Amino acid sequence: MLAFMKNKILIPLLILGALAAFFSFRYSAFESKETNRNTAILETVMTAIEQGHFSPRVLDDSFSLAVFNKTLHTLDYRKNFFTQQDVDHLSAFQYDIDDEIRNKTTLFFDTVDNVFTRRIDSAEGYYKSILQTAFQFNTNDSVKLGGDDIPYAADETALKERWRQYLKYLTLSKYVDLKKGQENNKEKDAKKKSDAELEADARQSVLKNQDLFFKRLRKLKNNERFALYMNAITNSEDPHTDYLPPDDKARFDESMSGSFFGIGAQLQENEGNVKIVSVIAGSPCWKQGELKVNDVIQKVAQGNAEPTDVTGMDIDEVVKLIRGPKGTTVKLTVKKVDGSIRVIPIVRGEVLREEVFAKSAIIMDKSDKIGYIYLPEFYADFNKANGRRCAVDIAEEVQKLKNEKVSGIILDLRNNGGGSLQDVVDMAGLFVDAGPIVQVKTNAGAAEKLYDRNKSTLYDGPLAIMINQGSASASEILAAAMQDYKRAVIVGSTSFGKGTVQRLISLDDVARYTGIQTTDTEGNGIGSIKITVQKFYRINGGSTQLKGVTPDIILPDPYQDIDMGERRDKASLKWDEIPAASYSPVPHPVDVARLSALSQARINANSTFNLIKSNAKILKEKENNNFYQLGEMRYRKELDDAAAISKKMEELEKKASPLTVVNIKADLPKVNMDTTTVAKNAEWLKSIKKDIYISETVSIIKDLTMMSARLINNTGIK
Question: Could you say which architecture CATH assigns to the domain 356-502+528-715?
């Protein structure tokens, strides 16, 4: 199951001595020394939660019901597998899960797993049978597909009908795509297929996709399905407490550090083959030089060992074979575009995922220069003493922009899901003098204030920070601190509302220090838990939890009428506040009221922003009335209506004057490394040029620059 947020707040791992103290008092319910792997994981996770969670839930019937519902939702969020009869049968457990946790048993999981496995068999029979018969699209019927507001199918007959409607919708979608493609094909000799032939092709495509989906379902091992159940338990504590099996822990470390050890090629699965779709500049395979885009990987060998045929393998399995320790050799047998077969040896090394790292550009406005910095994550490599950290990188980007003599800086934190807590404190210190940046509190103790202790600033000029509903945790800390200090103008839409701090803890260490016996048949350990241990608060005392950060200047957003972020999850921790820290706003604070008035006048006169506001209302209506059309005419009308809005948006974008964006001179050698980096850079600059939100923020920065200049002239500030 995909999670909405990729990164959460993380602070350094507990040292072993601290772990011993942290778990010195065991949760009395767990005394067994003989457990199998699943019960060992359950016992260890609950021990960690009881002793370490910021606000552990009471193990009662209410908690049990929450876990019960989350488990069913995780396994069957579309309600395409379980019948109401199944749910009625499983409901015998809905108030017993808390007792099972105390007794270290997993009867509910074992039962629901068995039912779900049987339902996979049933559903496989449904879709294969249903897709043998042609659909009729000359109807006006519609259907709701998934969601809390639809009931489970009453019985197997009703469930099969639900599958028929679901598959009809998928087929209709593909059929219309094929039909529109044929309609748009103006070649004289192009062969035209009949509607019946197009419908058959569409059904065949849906059948193929369902075959792949069910293949993956069947490959889920018991421990992988149990991990889903464990996360139903941990996410019932709060949305950001997660159980991470060993493989997921490795992926989490990679996402935080922005690097991994491998060869540096992006793979794609295509009709049973694994193809190279891009090569990362500077990576081991880029340096080796023989692996090219569109090469098909046939075999993978570890050094001189016998190669493994990867034809038909899932892409995740192939990736596991290719990645490995730094300095080791992997040999790829690949089929070239010309049909030749080559064996390519590549020495594994560190691969940097450049797309997650901070980067900057200059927006030209006549003779004026405005700096733009994009930060997609608050990354930090905790596994290396001198690992890459976003605070250091942002400082370098700011210095490069200062060297270019920019008049103001925009820091773009839109859709930045957060990351390292220490880095956000260090980063805030680049823009303000010494003082508190954020307050962090455990459930029992007093709030701890995290300070920037550097009595200087790297940059004290005009500053705007962009946020939206995807900006979370560390992004919210930085935006809130700059807002409280009145140091920057915050622009965009209200942020996600994640005001909690997580710590990553090895469950093997927990088990070792609490005497829990684990059965690790695979030699990988039992995993880790990312656990909510603290809440953070603004220096003004308010929490960002649930409420998020409200911008000084609110820009129209397509999703502004839809309740998003932390507020959507019933398990989220509540908003509260604590006493404010002692701090002083900057001497000459940003006049946000004046800036907002100037911006609002531009927004009201901007046709694109007005269209965004209108479209936001349409999206809200769709959320409230989530029916899917099963007839061609109505389905195409919905597509045409959406296309008309999109076309109008494109026309407005064409009429608008694009921004002039250039690279910083110091970045040109890296940008021009090869054709791949040149193309990626051009695409990035293009995305900035036509971004209406950046354009309005540039105008805000210009207003702020003029206001600052007047202040200097009127006061004689040096």
Answer: Alpha-Beta Complex (3.90)
